[in-house]
Write a structure and sequence with these properties.
This protein is an alpha+beta fold. The chain is 37% helix and 12% strand. A hairpin with a 4-residue loop joins strand 1 and strand 2.
């Protein structure tokens, strides 16, 4: 099975159409939900032992450097959004999933040369 990334709406729509035409299921990659630590934390949160969660913060340190130098990770015209798209979506997804998928009140994102930021306000 070959995996492919969609870096824009048009590519995502093509993938959805291909899945529909083939009769197969298209799943977005949210692999962090299936990690042992994530499963444990989800059960812990759902048990009520953490009380009401109203804020959180997440981050990531890439210990192995930048993968595929010269590819989409280091070429701005191919990246589709840099670290925010590369890693950020996974941690935003994980954080929102862990606290029960609350309805977003607002979402703001910004990309800078040195860093990417996303601010979520959830209910």
């Amino acid at each position: 099975m070959r995996s492919r990334d969609a870096v824009n709406v048009e590519e995502a729509e093509k993938m959805a159409e291909a899945a529909k035409n083939s009769g197969k299921v298209l799943m977005t990659m949210r692999n962090n939900r299936f990690r042992h630590a994530s499963q444990f934390l989800k059960q812990y949160i759902d048990s009520g032992r953490m009380g009401d969660i109203y804020t959180g913060r997440c981050g990531w340190i890439r210990r192995r450097g930048i993968p595929g130098k010269g590819g989409r990770f280091t070429n701005k015209s191919l990246s589709g959004g840099g670290p925010l798209i590369d890693l950020g979506v996974h941690f935003i997804d994980l954080a929102v999933w862990l606290i029960g998928n609350p309805k977003p009140v607002s979402v703001t994102g910004a990309t800078y040369c040195a860093a990417n930021f996303v601010f979520l306000t959830l209910r």
